[in-house]
Input
Amino acid sequence: MTKQELVTALTARRDATGLTHADIALRSGLTERSVRNALSLKGNPQMSSLLALVDALGLELQLAPKGFGERTDADPGYRPVPTRIGDAVGGAAAPSASASEPRSRKRSP
Output
């Protein structure tokens, strides 16, 4: 996500909630000027200010690997990394009978 995309998402949320800069400042504990600067492309808020702003807008920041969630048809050569969760979600074949049988364990003396 670029800075422009982040600012666009935050301002869209502000518009959707109908909150003013003063409302956000009150909710976040920031000054109105800090809110205005953070919601502009020229601003460069500290992480603590950004987190307060995001929280005041009823959002949360999450970290994800680059490209996570992108459309897979954008790159015809894309092959997802196989995982147990990915296979389950992708409708992988049911496990074989031998995989579902209980395993015997050797007990230590």
Observations:
- The chain has a mean pLDDT of 79.
- Residues 3-17 form the longest helix (15 residues).
